[in-house]
Amino acid sequence: MQIREATKDDEPKIKELIEKLHAFEMPMEELYASRPDTAERNMRFFKRMIKNDNGTIFVAEVDNQIVGYAVCWIAKRPPYLYKVDRIGYISDVFVEEQYRRRGIGSALLGKILEWFKNKNIKYVELSVLVKNEKAIKFYEKHGFKVYSLNLRKVMNNGKNKNKGN
Question: What is the pTM of this model?
Answer without folding.
Answer: 0.86
